[in-house]
Design goal:
alpha/beta; five-stranded parallel sheet; binds phosphoric acid mono(formamide)ester; aspartate carbamoyltransferase activity
Length: 311
């Protein structure tokens, strides 16, 4: 396994063999999970703490499941009932968990860079489960694994990432991963929701959704992250759907065998029509969630192997 670091803080900086090795290992865990078998020895005696300062359904649950399937002791720390509410800082919270000999610390935080800061202060391996608008690396891994299972390879694919690019750590991690692996990435959305320096990331920018979807292999829809917006960057949800919501008419412009993705949580009728989200052959949204467990098992596996045995 070529993975180069003690932590997983970002996709940016990883090279094709690092990503390919992680995806290959995740694929083996996907098959193991489907067989109903577990591998409870690998993380036996290890402690994994989920430290989520922002809401989550998929990421937190799948890290918990992944840790348990590999035999770790998993603690979900409830930030809303923790001493953070009494004014304890992020770093003091982390030092406290570190003193409990935690091996793997999974953190989601509203501030970009919070996981990187923690990684300098604790002995545990730190995994970024989403930091501000920066990155969400395990989401990009699970998206890539899902695409690879349907398309065979990431090389040469046209991937259209649509919607609120500006506030999306999912978009950022996917752009880094997909361009590193040889996909052609388009970002599609209104000018207010596309970062001014998007082209610097090696993507093509489209403000017309129909042009952006033309002949795409993969259509990835994103949620409007109103909680990160200051001011009215979009008109009404109804008007947004008219121009940028994925419906059958717009999807017809992509390749006939294109797949539709969404990291969740979805806002049906805002960025995606229910008939497309639930489409039996085109939508792979459920499979993304399944691959999330496999990818997180692969990440925990790789990072745990690099930890000293007696901590
Ligand atoms: N995709 C994703 O991060 O979902 P959650 O917010 O539910 O974890």
């Amino acid at each position: 396994m070529s993975y180069p670091s003690k932590h997983l803080l970002a996709i940016e900086g990883l090279e094709p063999p690092h990503i390919a090795d992680l995806l290959d290992l995740a694929e083996s865990y996907a098959l193991l999970n489907r067989s109903g078998k577990t591998q409870r020895d690998l993380l036996k005696g290890r402690t994994l703490i989920n430290l989520f300062f922002e809401d989550s359904t998929r990421t937190r649950t799948s890290f918990e499941l992944a840790g348990k399937r590999l035999g770790a002791d998993v603690i979900n720390m409830s930030v809303s009932t923790s001493s953070v509410n009494k004014g304890e800082t992020l770093l003091d919270t982390a030092s406290t968990l570190n003193a409990m000999q935690c091996d793997l610390l999974v953190i989601r935080h509203a501030q970009s860079g919070a996981p990187a800061l923690l990684s300098q202060k604790v002995d545990a391996a730190v995994i970024n489960a989403g930091d501000g608008t920066h990155e969400h690396p395990t989401q990009a891994l699970l998206d890539a694994l899902t695409i690879r299972r349907h398309k065979g390879s990431l090389q040469g694919l046209v991937v259209a990432i649509c919607g609120d690019i500006a506030h999306s750590r999912v978009a950022r991690s996917n752009i880094h991963l997909l361009t590193t692996m040889g996909s052609r990435v388009r970002v599609v959305g209104p000018p207010t929701l596309i970062p001014a320096d998007a082209a610097r990331l090696g993507v093509e920018v489209f403000h017309d959704m129909k042009a952006g979807l033309k002949d795409a292999d993969v259509v990835m829809m994103l949620r409007l992250q109103r909680e990160r917006m200051s001011g009215g960057l979009v008109p009404s949800a109804r008007e947004f759907f008219r121009f940028y919501g994925l419906d059958a008419e717009k999807l017809a412009l992509a390749k006939p065998d294109s797949i539709v993705m969404h990291p969740g949580p979805m806002n049906r009728g805002v960025e995606i029509d229910s008939a497309i989200a639930d489409h039996p052959t085109r939508s792979v949204i459920g499979e993304q969630v399944e691959m999330g467990v496999a990818c997180r098992m692969a990440v925990l596996d790789v990072l745990a192997r690099r930890l000293p045995r007696n901590r």
